[in-house]
Design a protein that fits this description.
The complex is a heterodimer of chains A (524) and B (100).
Chain A (H helix, E strand, L loop, with lengths): L7 H10 L4 H19 L2 E4 L1 H16 L11 E5 L26 H8 L3 E6 L33 H8 L5 E6 L5 H7 L2 E4 L19 E6 L2 H11 L29 E4 L10 H16 L3 E4 L8 H16 L50 H13 L2 H14 L5 H24 L2 E5 L15 H6 L5 H6 L2 E9 L5 E8 L4 H14 L15
Chain B lengths: L4 H10 L6 H18 L34 H5 L23
Classes of the chains: A alpha/beta (524), B mainly alpha (100).
């Protein structure tokens, strides 16, 4: 069997037993990246030399009889939102083009300490803002199942590289569905852990009370393997949880008898594509056949999830992204004007009224109050893409004097109601099941002209983040057109073992997760 | 809910984002649509509901105030667009002269 056909669990076992070298495994995936990624654009950078060097060092370690880490020889792709000291970290933004962080994210450090091989950094929506990967400053990712379609986002590169067997596992991050939705649209398995389960230190911050890093792989078993390494308390992230990390992989085996899975009838409303609804109901039937009990439950505030999310997340983003000031790192506008429309920038007077063109009231040319403010404003205008600007503007507006209570404070109150829905539901059920997305993968360009239509893509995923609980998505069928359909399970805080066990059981009873896109087929 | 161009220009300054005339037109239209959408929250009764800023019941974390190794000056400056080896260089805060 080729290394690129093997599961991550089998790969690390083969390396540990000496049946496969880390070098051979790494070369196999690098070869696939070289062959396929010009069509998919899943990677923003590939560290071929570094990966081969790391792999060779792992093989030397093994030969010398030194102990190997739990991920020894496993190639891993990392979303470009996580800092890597030896590779660029761009967040798919012009703002950070070529940026080299001075340190590794905690998750990256843990992967290295476990002897994983980091092969490259994956494409994403700029600063993780988007659901289609079309907001990348470096071009969209193409869905391996149909290159004219979006892979989902924002972790679209991580999902697509696993779907096309360019990496056995990948790291993603999920603020409102950014692991689960692309996993669903690309036919792989993706886990968003409980908020705080995985350290966020060195993850470029988008919305700090929602962001969470998680594993993306071809199966629940492979996600469990990766989660065991990346989860755990980190003194460098004050929000990381101190609870001990259970052996997720060893906990997989277990029956589903007695497990209660909630089904929300409102999920099956008019907006849900009939093919998706059918596949999701079939998955419920499979869980029932496996011994689980399916119970209809109500999540009364779920409808308010997207509106709540699109206040909370942009507000936090507007604050987090204030750090991109053209002074410390990242893009700085050159003095002397805006390249796109020289002389046509109209800043605002301190009083709030827009200055007349050419009659700037500020101290500096062009009407800015100082040369420093002008540098800030122009650097940010040039460095950020349209969606990032929209969210910064929306968040700044919702936090500004006179609007804070009506928008931000109101959203935080509704957030509590949404979390209470989960607490109430988990009195009655152990898991909540349902669709990940209302449709299978949509066409590139189909929604990119309509920001609000794109936001509604997050309907089934945002509440998980608002409540801080865990969720997993995995394939549960295909459309007639051959596109994967995802199923989502959500669980109470820290119930990752049950999420993984239920998914693993389902993957023993079905083979949807084993299907590969035609592009991943071996050349004859 | 609709925002005026002036509202949007003001927010642009607060957000430190230079907006061209075209940007202002687009942003005014798009933000009005989005703000209209999120305004649906008005209809939810949140009387006596406390805001929830953080999803889990965690507490402030303190550590002993002991000096620890941190980034060196060189590391901190390594990606700075302009620096003099010790400090980040920025344009003058007052007036329109100075380094950029």
């Amino acid at each position: 069997m080729q290394p690129s056909d093997m599961s991550a669990v089998d790969l690390v076992t083969a390396v540990r037993h000496g049946d496969l070298t880390a070098l051979r495994a790494t070369e196999a995936f690098l070869e696939r990246i070289e062959r396929l990624d010009s069509q998919i654009n899943a990677f923003l950078s590939v560290d071929r030399e570094g990966a081969l060097r790391t792999a060779a060092a792992i093989d030397e370690k093994r030969k010398a009889g030194q102990p190997l880490g739990p991920l020894a020889g496993l190639p891993v792709a990392v979303k470009d939102a996580l800092c890597t000291f030896d590779q660029p970290t761009t967040c798919a933004s012009k703002m950070l083009a070529g940026f080299r962080p001075p340190y590794d994210a905690e998750v990256v450090a843990r992967l290295r300490a476990a002897d994983a091989v980091i092969v490259g950094k994956t494409n994403m929506d700029e600063f993780a803002m988007g659901g289609s990967n079309e907001n990348s400053a470096f071009g969209p990712v193409h869905n391996p199942w149909d290159l004219t379609r979006a892979p989902g986002g924002s972790s679209g590169g991580s999902a697509a590289c696993v779907a096309a067997d360019m990496a056995p596992v990948a790291i993603g991050s999920d603020t409102g569905g950014s692991i689960r939705q692309p996993a669903g649209l690309c036919g792989i398995t993706g886990l968003k852990p409980t908020y705080g389960r995985v350290s966020r230190r060195g993850l470029v911050a988008f919305a700090s009370s929602l962001d969470q890093i998680g594993p993306m792989a071809r199966s629940a078993a492979d996600c469990a393997l990766l989660l065991e390494t990346i989860a755990g308390h980190d003194p460098g992230d004050a929000t990381s949880l101190e609870s001990p990390v259970p052996p997720y992989g060893a906990d997989l085996d277990g029956p589903l008898e007695g497990v209660r899975i909630g089904r929300v009838p409102a999920h099956f409303g008019a907006g849900l594509c009939p093919e998706v609804a059918h596949a999701v109901e079939e998955a419920f039937a499979a869980f029932r056949a496996a011994g689980a009990t399916i119970i209809d439950i109500d999540m009364p505030h779920a409808d308010a999830g997207v509106a709540t999310y699109y206040l909370v997340a942009p507000c936090e983003a507007s604050s987090n992204l204030a750090r991109y000031d053209g002074a410390h790192y990242g893009h700085r506008a050159e003095p002397g004007g805006h390249r796109a429309e020289p002389g046509r920038l109209h800043p605002v007077e301190p009083g709030g009224h827009r200055a007349e063109p050419g009659k700037g009231s500020g101290a500096s040319g062009g009407g800015f109050e100082s040369a420093l403010v002008e540098m800030y404003c122009r650097s940010r205008a040039e460095g950020f893409g349209p969606e990032v600007k929209r969210r910064i503007m929306l968040g700044t507006y919702a936090l500004s004097a006179g609007y804070y209570d009506a928008y931000y404070a109101k959203a935080l109150k509704v957030r509590r109601l949404i979390r209470q829905d989960y607490l109430d539901a988990f009195e009655k059920v152990d898991l909540i099941g349902g669709p990940v997305s209302a449709t299978a993968a949509f066409k590139l360009g189909e929604k990119s002209g309509d920001p609000l239509a794109m936001y509604l893509v997050d309907l089934y995923t945002v509440c998980t983040n608002l409540a801080g609980v865990g969720g997993i998505s995995f394939p549960c069928g295909f459309t007639k057109g051959g596109l994967p359909i995802g199923f989502q399970l959500q669980a109470p805080a820290l119930a990752e073992p049950l999420l993984l066990r239920a998914t693993d059981r389902y993957q023993h009873l079905t083979d949807w997760h084993r299907r590969r896109p035609a592009i991943a087929a071996r050349p004859r | 809910m609709s925002l005026s161009r002036n509202d949007v220009a003001k927010v642009g300054l607060l957000a430190r984002l230079a907006l061209s005339e075209t940007d202002l037109d687009t942003m005014t239209r798009e933000l009005s649509t989005i703000v209209g959408f999120v305004s649906q929250l008005e209809q939810i009764d949140t009387t006596d509901v406390a805001p929830l800023a953080h999803p889990l019941d965690t507490q402030n974390v303190f550590r002993a105030d002991i000096p620890q190794p941190s980034l060196t000056t060189a590391q901190a400056l390594q990606s700075a667009p302009r620096h003099d080896g010790e400090c980040f260089l920025v344009p003058a805060v007052l007036g329109d002269s100075g380094a950029n």
